[in-house]
Amino acid sequence: MPWNASIRLAYAASGEGRTIARFAHEGPLRILQSLHPEGAAICHNVLVHPPGGLVGGDTLEVDVSGQERTHGLITTPGAARFYRSEGEAATQIARIRLAQHARLEWLPLEAIYYPGCDAVNRLELDLAPGGEAFGWDIAALGLPQANQPFARGRVRQHIELRGDWLERASIDARDARLLDGPLGFAGHRCLATLFFATGSDMPRARRELALDAAREAIERDATHRDGAETSTRACIAGATSPSPRVVVVRALAPLVEPAFGVLKAVHRAWRPALWGLPPVQPRSWTV
Q1: Shortest CA distance to 139 belongs to which of 110, 169, 104, 108?
Q2: What is the mean pLDDT of the chain?
Q3: What is the DSSP letter of 274?
């Protein structure tokens, strides 16, 4: 029997610039206590799914909204897991809607796609003019360190900024040309996407600022990790701007850690460059 869950999380303004979170849920999906480690204006939340994973037929739905001039940050305490399916797909859908001048940071930990899974992972953004979001998706195919390669199964990914930007991927474990070819994943099994999305066109100078900050962060991270066991020399990363409303960083790596390191480095660079905020990361990442 499918084990479905959903949550509606709304960020609202509550006097003197404070952001508060209200939520309603069905099934095993909820947020932990709201935290304000950066002050009242920014509300940090950890999204928890107690079962820890999805099997065929399960569905998780997350709806996030932000009122005008609110700022939310959402992460997770651990990886999402898509386990082996006996026929039906396991589906995770996140929908984000931001009002004018609202901000959101959508920073979940990685999704692990187990051998034999049938997974659908969707992220949809609807941003009003002046609304802005940082977000990422980190996909780990199989468990190579546990000797469980992604030898069978499929993953369908969807990232969309409504009306402006759409990326889709269909990954089949039998597609050796995609997974191992030099024009595909080149043998890497972690693929990651970080984006900065806005509800109205960015001035060219701001897009260039975002691209320069991202490229410098990628280079600094590679230099810092040079010679380490999880060196980003094994990680391919680059930044681009496919539209006036989106700047994207993409990374490929053999394991999660190098790709995650690159995304965190760029996020730390973008926060002060684009929002004038300190490069703070969620406390749960260091626990």
Answers
A1: 110
A2: 93
A3: I
Question: How high is the pLDDT of residue 227?
Answer: 52
The C-alpha atoms of residue 12 and residue 71 are separated, in whole angstroms, by: 9
Rounded CA separation 70/128 (Å): 13
Tell me what pLDDT residue 20 has: 97
pTM to 2 decimals?
0.94
Helix, strand, coil percentages (3-state) for the chain, rounded to 5, are 20, 45, 35
Q: For 56-84, what is each residue's pLDDT tens digit?
A: 999 999 999 999 999 999 999 999 999 99
The pLDDT-based confidence of 51 (bands split at 50, 70, 90) is: confident
- Residues β-bridged to residue 126: 97
Chain Cα centroid distance, residue 121: 11
Answer positive or negative: Cα dihedral of 62, 52, 186, 149: negative
> Cβ of 106: how many Cβ atoms within 10 Å?
22
Distance between CA atoms of residues 155 and 90, nearest Å:
10
Cα–Cα–Cα angle for 230, 231, 234, rounded to 5 degrees: 100
Report how far residue 36's alpha carbon sits from residue 254's, in angstroms, rounded to the nearest whole number.
35
Note the pLDDT of residue 229.
47
